[in-house]
Every structure is written in structure tokens, then in C-alpha cells.
Amino acid sequence: MPLLILLSVPLFAAIVLAFIGDRKYAPEINILGSAATFAAGIALALEVYVKGPMLAGGNFFFVDAFNVYLAVLTSFVSMTTAIFSRRYMRKERQDGHVGPIRMRFYHAMFQLFIFAMLLCLLTNNVGVLWIAMELATLSTVLLVSLYRTPSAIEAAWKYFILCGVGIALALFGTVLLYFAAEKVLGAGGEALLWTNLSQVSGKLEPTVLSLAFVFLMVGYGTKVGLVPVHNWLPDAHSEGPTPISAVLSGLLLNVALYALVRCKVLVDGSTGTHHAGDIMMGFGLLSIIVAAFSLLRQKDIKRMFAYSSIEHMGIATFAFGLGGPIATFGALLHMLVHSLTKSAIFFTVGHASQMHWTQEMDRIKGLIRGNPLVGWGMMFGVMAIVGMPPFGVFTSEFLILTATMKDAPLLTPFLLLGFAVAFAALFRRVQPMVTGPAPSYQRPIKAAHIPVMLHMALVLVIGIYMPDFLNRWFHTAVELLK
Amino acid sequence: MHTNLAAQINSFLAAMILLTAFGMLVQRRMYGLIHLFAWQGLFLSISTAIVGFVAGAHHLYISSILTLSLKVILLPYILHVLIQRLKIHKEVETIVNVPMTMLIGIALVIFSYHLTAPVRELSTLMTRSTLAVALATVLLGLLMMITRKHAVTQIIGFLAMENGLFFAATSATYGMPLVVELGVALDILIAAFIFGIFFFQIHTTFDSLDIEQMARLKEED
């Protein structure tokens, strides 16, 4: 029942918001819808926590420890983003960046996007997963071009075309997967269910599955933003409205990675080797290195944090590829803390660029003087994201590093190099932005503080003391992904 | 005998699909491109129907009708209307290095045969030999998107890739489950709306649908 509510609320909210349009209370409805989604997510998580994995809707939906934690995370971050978006988008409207029609569109598509991601996570059907992933892309494409500036349109076009191509390749992989599954499970929708596939994974034809994985890896890897198929990501994340950047970086990448990890478990289970994991490690490591060095060259603040997202997705992909209980635990935790931290950073970035009328880092200065909470929020956010203790990202990166030293010691220096370069690049840039006197062109704004503080507090708590239920939860998920 | 004949007709249609894919790769005129795309959809639709009939997989009829209505009628019609509204129907695109593109295309076909060899050996379906053509169509669509710099052309390349994917599903497994095929068709329909809006946005912003002009977002050194 909570599952039904969880999926129907955002869909319903999308329709309602499409009708409400640009009325004064539209942002509040948006928040309300997201809050209801979050409540349903919590209820579903409790149900799974007490009763264990479950099937619903005639095997159409499948909920276990792995996807329910991502569903809760998705609904939580979408709620805080909706809160942030209320003040942020109001300012954008006052500045004349968006008109009433686009605001209507923005709210409706935001909710549709949340729906698509939740469907991705909760569906049991590999084909429906693909459809929902495409829907998630399509619902955000026109949000990226919301401001209709030449660069925004260019970014959205790139996003549309590159993700379209990527996801087409993933569909070919799905066809091959179905080909292998049909031989064992018979034709029909049943052959594409995760639950059925994982039961017979040993009997699936390994050569076909390896071939399928190559296509799935490139396809879903495009959506995760892994190098070398990442080109759309910095553009799309930097040109769209900031709330959209926050959910793209914080949530959509996670959802795509979720799909990839499920495929990997299936394929490695079938072939009995570690090939799929190796491929993921390769892509992950390449992403870490390339993104870390790209960080050094950025001038646009949102673009820089987009590259940071590529780096962190690379870390999680690498860790899932490495496998083993410690690395997998680290990767699950990393997905959680990265999502919280990165969206918090984007919230502060959004306000910072509104205060200075620009996204150029050279012109953003004296944030702490201008607005202490935005300034300190960004400072702590960046400290967390580069992996400084006591924040949660430190814990996850430490776990991943430990596992790497044990299972693949030769790769440790590369991983460390990536961490170090990213650390230097981000600090070099952020320190001048937050400290120093406020420039004359800076203007005061009404910032949304609650989302940032909430996220950072959670990251801090997870870093200092991991709650017992979270711990048990991740352990169950690790068992599932063996 | 019956199956044998059907398999031959299907192979013929596969050849035609591949031929149209190559044709699109070097077609410079907008209308010519759209017509080629519609023909490809028609071949795909007939092939799907024949396979559905011979194999007794009746859900393929639905897939065939979907292809016919979407890829042969609706999308070409939308594209027609769009390029007339945007007054770009007389545009002739310059394509650099046609022989090279063709050679790469041929290499992609050979590569597809090589890649799908394990699937062909395992399959017992009468359509197994056409899977390579399906993958080749996907890759040729991809090649078209890379080599061409016009927004409409890129979209047609994208849609041709989707044709290849539907063909792959029919060849490898007599079609995906119905819910998946319907969902994919829905996604294509939404995508059609979006690129329609996009054409106007790009046209009003850049005064042309030439993608080359979009070069703002580059890494600066």
C-alpha cells in the first residue's frame, strides 16, 4: 500500500501542478507533494525493514533493502529540493529569467521526474526500468533548457541526443538479456523480472550475457556520467536551474548506477567470473582520474561541481565493481552521502550565484560576509565532499580505499591521486569564494537554509555515528549484491 | 516450406532495411531523408507482421501496427510539418567525405555480424540471421548522428536507431513483452514532442538548425 502511494503521489502532483500553473501557492503544493512522497517512502521502508523483501502488484514491483534505501533517499532529497526551489525560483522569477508558463512546466516536470526515478527503482521488470529511465531523461531535457539561453539550449540538446543514444544501446543490451532469459524462463513478461532472473542466473547463457553487459554498461554508464561517455553531464548540470542540477547530480546518477549494479550482479552470477566487475572498475577509475583533473580547469561553479559528481560516481562504480562486503558497503554509503552532500552544495551554489548575478567563480567572493549560512554551508559542503573527517564521505571513501588496498593494491595510488587532485582543485577554488570582503555588486537574498542544514547534519551524523538501523540495512543490501 | 519462404522474405526485408539505413547516411535532402526513414519503417512493419504470422506470436501484430502508425505515418508527418513551418525543406546539407562514411558503415556491418555470432549459434528462431542487420542498423544510425550536423538529421538518425532496436527485438526473441514494447513506443512519442519543441527553440535562438553553431559549451583552457 505505501508503495502505491509512493508512486501515485508524484504522478498525481504532476497533474495537479500542471493545472495550478503559476498560482502563488504552486511551490507549496510542490513541497506538499514531495513531503507526502517522502512519508510514503518512510512507510515503505519500515514495512520492508520489518517484513523483509517483498513483491507487489502481481510481481510488477519488487522492494528489497537495496532499492528501498534509494527510494527513501530520492524522496527525501526531492522534498528538500522542493523546499529550496520555492525561494530560489521565486527569485529567478523576479529577475525575469522565467515566465509563468515555464513555471507551470517546471513544477509539473519536477514531479514527473521524481515519479520516473521512483518507478526505475521499484519496478521488477528490466524493460520497464529502461522505459522509466528514458522517461526520467525526457522529463528533464526541457528543464535544462528552461532559461532558453543559447548555452542552455545547447546543453539540453546534447543531453537529449547523448543520453538518447546511450539509452538506445542499453535497450539493445536488454533485448539480449531477454534473449538469454527466454531460453530458461520462457517467453513473456515473466522472463524480464529481476526476481526470476536472479533465481536462474546460473543457467543463463554466459556469452550472451557478457555481450549484453557491454551494451548495458555503455548505455546506463552514459546516464551515470562515466568517462568517456560523460560529455553531456557538465553542460546539463551547469545550464539548468539549480534545483534541477541538485536532483540530477544527487539522484538521477544514483538511479542509473542502481540499474548498472543490478545488471552487474546478474551477469557475474551467470558467467561465474568477475568480468562485469572489472569493466565497472575500469570505467570508474578512469572517471575518477579524468574528472579530478578536469576540476582544475573549471571557471563556472556549477560546472565544477558537475565534474565532482562524475568523480564521485566513478568512486561508487569502482567500488561496486571491486565487489566484496567492505567495498560494496562503502559504495552504498557513498551513494547516500554523496547525494546528500552534493545536493546541499548545489543549494548553496544556487544562492551564491543569485547573490553575484553570475556562475563565474572569479566574480563570487566574500560569501560568509554576505550571507553566513550560505558561505559556511558551502564551506562545510566542500569539506565534506572532498572527504575530510568527520563527515560521512570520509567514512565511505576510507572503506573503499581499505578494500582497494586489500583486493587490488596496485590501483590504490590511482585512487589516492584522484582524491588528492580533487581535494586541491576544490579547495583552491572555494576558499576565495567564501572568505574575504563582500564585493560591491553582491546583493542580499532570502536563502533557504533548512535544506542545506538538514543535509549537512545528516552527513555529519552518519560520519560520526552510523545509526544501527542504517548499518543493518546496508549489511542486508551487501548480502543481496554478493 | 512455408517457414522457409517466410525466412527468405524476412531476409529480403532485412536487406532493404539495411539499404535504407545506408541511403540515409548519405542523403542530403530533407524530404529524401524523411521518405527513406518512412520506407525503413514500412519494411520493419511488414517484417514484424510476417514474423508474427509465421511464428504465431500474435503480440507482434500490435508491434507491427505501432511501427506502422508511429514510424511510417505519424513521425514522418510531424517532421514534414516541422520542416515546412521552419522553412528548411529546401536545405541541402553538405556531407563531407561520403566514401569514407560508407566504408566505415560497411565495417560496422561486418563488425555486427562478428559480434552477434554467439547469439546466432544459440538461437533456433527463423529470424536469427537478421539480428546482425538489426545491430548494424543501430550502429549506422549512431554513425549518422556523429557525421551529420543538422538537428533534423540527428533526430532521424536517432529514430533509425530505434527502428534497429525494434528489429533486433523481433529477430532475437520474436519481440519484447508487450508492456515493454508499448512503453518504448510511448517514450518515442514523448521524444517526438520534445524534439519538435527543440527545433523551434534552436531555430529561434540560433537562426538555423545547424548544430555546428552550438559551440559555446567547451572546455576552456
Write up what this structure looks like.
The complex is a heterodimer of chains A (482) and B (221). The radius of gyration of chain A is 21 Å and the shape is globular. The model of chain A has no long low-confidence stretch (mean pLDDT 91). Chain A has a two-stranded antiparallel sheet with strand order 1-2. Chain A is built from 19 helices and 2 strands. Chain A has 482 residues and is mainly α. Helix content of chain A is 78%, strand content 1%. In chain A, a hairpin with a 4-residue loop joins strand 1 and strand 2 (61-63). The longest helix of chain A has 36 residues, at 150-185. Chain B is mostly helical and 221 residues long. Chain B contains 8 helices and no strands. The longest helix of chain B has 29 residues, at 178-206. The mean pLDDT of chain B is 88. Chains A and B meet through helix 5, helix 6, helix 8 and helix 9 of A and helix 5, helix 6, helix 7 and helix 8 of B.
Please give a quick description of this structure.
Chain A is mainly alpha-helical. Chain A has helices spanning 2-20, 26-51, 65-94, 100-122, 126-144, 150-185, 194-199, 206-224, 232-239, 242-271, 275-295, 301-322, 325-356, 367-370, 372-385, 392-407, 412-434, 449-464, 468-480, and strands at 54-56, 61-63.
